[in-house]
Specification:
homodimer, about 425 residues, alpha/beta, Molybdenum Cofactor Biosythetic Enzyme, Chain A, Alpha-Beta Plaits, Maf protein, 3 domains, five-stranded mixed beta sheet, 16 helices, 17 strands, about 25% strand, globular, Competence-induced_CinA (chains A, B), CinA-like protein (chains A, B), MoaB/Mog-like_dom_sf (chains A, B)
């Protein structure tokens, strides 16, 4: 037995890449947790014929559940409900009680917009009447914003959710708990999923190890392994039914044997999580040039970061390096702003200025301009300085464009920080 | 006549959301520029049956061109080439010349990895031999990384590209210029596309205006309009054939008439572009608390930002606000760190410390903790201070979770900056 699902993401703005889809990945995670096999995500614009073609495709490959996101808004290009109804062979009817509920929701929202050009209430209510049109026999999920969701039973069952992630996410829990959805995914299998993360190993090196595992591990074929190189980190995700846990243990042993120094996480923890744990009881400051605040922002992504994050200086200009971090102008003149001595002086300055016991400095050439034969675009110098005087300094040459180099720089800095704090 | 295309994105790591797909949106833009209609993007894992089902679906809906991304790597889960070959009914053959070329590419790459655990050259070359397997009759596109691309002629023609964006993007230009690809898209139509951006108008207010346009503009039906609310900004993208330009001009006139103060861009320019232009000849510094560097990093996203970006202070802790920005401790004690007086003092401090003529300060409660009845999570105070003593100060209550609030804060700050500098 198993249960398979497909996700249909609608919206011309998503299809054309003007906004990135966050719902497909989020729903994929939820399905994985449930043990439902996600087979396909399909994206199309706000065209009924294209939406319907995707629904038919997914029904044709035999999924048990389809989840749609988007196309529930008040504008005329929002056509998901009527398309799903047609696909399911159901009439669309006005739900007057739901219409009244939406009207209640709109009142306070409209109060926020006033002045010339603001829409009047009656007009808005009319535009939102279409959000109260429901396929016969469908279960209505209460609006989080103004758009209700739907569960339309059938073969496959279709769960219709709004596009904005902050509306879709709270609605999902209610949708999947409906008897119709539970019945659709009744055949789901429980899987285990484990993640190992490495830093500093090429993907082909891992391929070699996995080939070895294929020969040395008896139940290797029961492990569904996917590998992914991202921002210099190699992620190995393995999914297996619970009784194949022994094979997975053998795989982990093999990885440890061959790549001990490169593995930084065996429990799925990100380098951000590890660094956050290592920073407990410490006080950290950053000094950033080319990344211009991205590292500080990344540290602050963790809720509760105020326990250990003092702050940072974005010393984009040389003057800022001198005035705010106390970097000696002579050092910049002699070695250049992108150099290990300057990175070290920046880190030392951050320690001092913030009264911190941990500091990270980044100075580099992100391009597109500013490269030289000696220091091409992608040259980035890092320093981690600790309160006891220890320093860990590195220079790397990072690939990619301006955005890649800056983002990758934050990852290198996180790993340097992890190393410096792990050997404490 | 028209030409339609579909994109097949493969990779279990993309399907399961572990990495975000950047290729679908990027290819969507390229197709749009060419006047090729993108009908569907489909995403599946590294399973040949699912990849083939998607290829058949796209062929079934009649697209002229399919572009695949991913699944060209050396690992055993990379199966796109053989699946495409089967779909096209072509044999797969070893291209020995290509194999030699890949071997040459690998040599210097391998030199970067040394020490225990590093893969030996012969193993890697064997793992990469499969990258030299080519469907009979296909045109080979030279590798940018180690994976070659392919153009496989047929109905539809299939362009096979590698997954990493930095390999896919340079290869695309060569792919689309091949005679096989040109023939597939011969029926393309030239479209115009224009974008209007607004800030501070609800989507339903726009819906009302568009309904009005439907009645008042004769050729309204010839405009393909999509609207999208993103980070508080409303984006209206309109596509039309060149001879419907008059209808578009009428639409823009209508938008101006009804929402003059809310329109900030009529040429597709982002607020980031506008702010970058307004900052020419100025010298800006940031002072950030909850956003912790995201605004400085966003300013630095623009190549050439060093012409106007002095730097910034991430004053995450109260001490940092006092020590690095000179905020009076008494002010924090009296009004709280999240308050307009503190935002103003932070901006003034940034002006002073960086010798800047423009400064932006952000201080807010991003959550999940730290909210109070008076200042709930989402309360954010902003101040733009200019060298002539003028200040623009605002407090907003932003919706969403920690990440939403922080990101939205940078957008509000950009618009405040735009307003302050526009009225100069």
């Amino acid at each position: 037995m198993s249960a398979r699902a497909g996700i249909v993401v609608t919206g011309t703005e998503v299809l054309t890449g003007r906004i990135a889809d966050r719902n497909g990945p989020w729903l994929a995670d939820r399905l994985l947790e449930l043990g439902v096999e996600l087979a396909h995500i399909t994206i199309c614009g706000d065209r009924p014929a294209d939406i319907e073609a995707q629904l038919r495709f997914l029904a044709g490959v035999g999924v048990d559940l389809i989840i749609t996101s988007g196309g529930l808004g008040p504008t005329a290009d929002d056509l998901t409900v009527e398309t799903v109804a047609r696909f399911c062979g159901r009439e669309v009817l006005l739900d007057t009680e739901l219409e009244a509920r939406i009207a209640e929701i709109l009142k306070p929202m409209m109060a926020r917009y006033t002045g010339p050009g603001a829409p009047d209430f009656a007009t808005v209510r009319a535009a939102n009447r279409k959000q109260a049109m429901v396929p016969a026999g469908a279960t209505v999920l209460d609006p989080v914003g103004t758009a209700p969701g739907l569960v339309v039973p059938g073969t496959p069952t279709v769960v219709v959710l709004p596009g904005p992630p902050r509306e879709l996410q709270p609605m999902w829990d209610k949708a999947i708990r409906t008897p119709e959805a539970q019945q659709a995914i009744a055949g789901r299998t429980r899987y285990e999923q484990q993640t190992v993360r490495m830093f500093g190993l090429p993907e082909s090196g891992l391929a070699d190890t996995l080939q070895h595992g294929q020969q040395s591990i008896a139940d290797f074929h029961r492990l569904e392994i996917t590998t992914c190189l991202r921002r210099g980190e190699l992620e190995i995700v393995t999914r297996y039914e619970p009784d194949a846990a022994g094979a997975y243990a053998e795989l982990v042993a093999l990885l440890r044997e061959r790549h001990a120094g490169k593995i930084f996480s065996e429990d799925g923890a990100l380098v951000d999580d590890l660094v956050a744990r290592l920073l407990a009881g410490r006080w950290i400051a950053t000094a950033e040039s080319c990344t211009a605040g991205m590292l500080a922002a990344r540290l602050a992504d963790q809720p509760g970061a105020s326990d250990y994050l003092a702050g940072g200086v974005v010393s984009y200009s040389n003057n800022a390096k001198e005035d705010l971090l106390g970097v000696d102008a002579a050092l910049i003149a002699e070695y250049g702003a992108v150099s290990e001595p300057v990175a070290e002086a920046m880190a030392a300055g951050a320690l001092r200025r913030f009264g911190a016991d941990t500091a990270v400095a980044i100075t580099g050439i992100a391009g597109p301009g500013g490269g030289t034969p000696d220091k091409p675009v992608g040259t980035v110098c890092f320093c981690v300085a600790l309160g006891d005087g220890r320093m860990l300094t590195r220079t790397t040459l990072l690939p990619g464009d301006r955005a890649d180099i800056r983002e990758r720089s934050t990852t290198v800095a996180m790993h340097l920080l992890r190393r410096a704090l792990s050997t404490d």
